[in-house]
Every structure is written in structure tokens, then in C-alpha cells.
Write a structure and sequence with these properties.
By secondary structure, the chain is of the alpha/beta class. The protein is about 45% helix and about 15% strand. Strands 3-2-1-4-5-6-7 form a 7-stranded parallel sheet, with helices on both faces. The termini are far apart. The model has no long low-confidence stretch (mean pLDDT about 95). The protein binds nicotinamide-adenine-dinucleotide. The site of nicotinamide-adenine-dinucleotide has 28 residues, from helix 1 and helix 5.
Amino acid sequence: MTPLLLGLEDRVVVVTGAAGGQGAAEALLLDSYGARVVATDLADAPPAAFNGTNVTYRRLDVTDEAGWTALAHEIATELRDSAPLKGLINNAGITHRARLGQTERADWDRVLAVNLTGPMLGIQALAPLMGEGSSIVNIGSAAALTAHYTAAYTASKWGLRGLTHVAATEYGPRGIRVNAVHPGFIETDMTANAPAAMRGAQLDLTPLERLGQADEVAQVAVFLLSDAAAYVSGAEIPVDGAFTSSAGVKYMADRIAAAKAAADASAPTT
Ligand code: NAD
């Protein structure tokens, strides 16, 4: 029997939005498996979380096409001789919690630029450097599987699903796999300021009855980057405690159960 093959050692993997949250968790997990991680984010300096690791940090605004070109050039000239570029996690993302009627054009443009145009630029810049056995993971969202109220964010993540399938089709013949991971409500800076009502409703609607952790998304993203997922491409994996699978039915089932319990409790005993 073939043992589980990860094959992550000595391959270059770029992670965007990696200064904190899920991106940092992905960078650190990849580093622990011997990957040559190039972690990128908006800040000039690397976060303290990378101290004592082999993670290399570069500033990159994912909306900056010239920045992607410069990163590709750097990888092609400095890193590629020693290790092949075989991975990209398009993780950087921003949210804007406004419904459609309250969404300003500037906010719509900003969210789509980071969440959708950023991954498109990243794939265009780095896929030409990738060969057989490479893997691209796009971090989508449960919002991309639902009508989540955050109009710009939800639209951007649905768009990212489309980009994922287009890229998987286009780059498949070159042996490059492209997949999407759809996190549910994950405890990071992004959700730290979410409305309390949203947090509570999310718990009510999530069959595992808890929120998720950055590490739990990182585990799945790293699996998709690895050779263990060698025949997985064009897939979308929710990491959401069955939130999207349940499609709100947990709420209905819980209400039915509560009503039955109340009726049973008030029924006369004979
Ligand atoms: P986070 O806010 O902790 O991390 C996002 C990172 O992206 C930050 O470090 C930020 O600086 C960086 N970033 C923002 N704009 C950027 C830009 N233009 N260029 C480069 N980097 C930029 O949030 P997170 O929860 O770790 O989010 C990671 C990904 O997961 C995002 O794509 C997000 O949409 C997605 N997601 C998060 C949740 C959640 O509940 N936290 C749920 C579903 C999907």
C-alpha cells in the first residue's frame, strides 16, 4: 500500500495575506513540513509569528500587478534554481459588511479588487513558473455557497469560484491543480469585530455547534497543496462545520424539536 504522500519538502509555496489569521497558519504549517514558504502581506515587516522559522516574508499588495510581476521575477531568478515553485495560496481577503442597498461603489470595487482580481493576478503571474505537480488553492468562503448578506464580499467569493474552475480547466493539461476551500465562520481578526448577532446566528446554524479555527482551514489547504491530493482539481471544499450543507435546516429541525419538547411537557399525564 502506498503511504500518505505529502511531498511538500523543498517546494516553494507563495501564501498571500499571511501576516495573521488563516494565512499565517497556512505558512507555518507548510514550513513545518519543509516547504520553502514565501509569505506575503501588506505590512513591510514580517509578523513575529515567523521568528525562528524558515518562512521568507515579502510585502505584496495582491491588487498590485507590478508587485506580482516583481515577485515572479524574484522567484524565477533567486529561488527557482534551488527549489521549484509548486504552490500558491490565494488567501488575502477583506470583507465589507453591508447589504446591497447600502453598498457604495468604492467599497464594491475595493472588495472585488482584493478578493477576486488579486487571485487572478496571482495566477497569471505565477502559473507560468509552475510545472507538473503544482497546486493553487483559492480561499473562498461559505459566502460563496450562499446568499450571505455582505453583497460585495459574497459576489467576490462567488467570482472566485468561477476563477477556480476556469483555472483548473486551463492549467490541468500542464499538471497544475486548482481548488477552492470555503471556510465558515473562523476566529480571526476578520471576524473579531463581526456583529454579535451574526456570531450567534452562525452558531445556531452550524451543525458542529462551534466556530472554526484558522488551523482547521490550514490543514485542508495544505492537504490540497500536497501530493496526497494529486488527483483533486476543480474541487470546492467547505470547512464550515456543515453550515452550508445544512442550508439552514438545522434551525428548522431545532425549532421542530423544541416545539415537540414543549408540547410533550405540557401534555396531560394519564
Ligand atoms: P484576516 O483579516 O486575519 O487576514 C486577512 C489578511 O489579508 C490580513 O493579514 C490582511 O493584511 C491581508 N490583506 C488584506 N488586503 C490585502 C491586500 N490587498 N494584499 C495583501 N494582503 C492583504 O482574515 P482571515 O480570516 O485570516 O482571512 C483569510 C481568508 O479567509 C480571506 O480570503 C477571507 O475572505 C477568507 N474567509 C475568512 C472567514 C472567517 O470567518 N475568518 C470566513 C470565510 C472566508
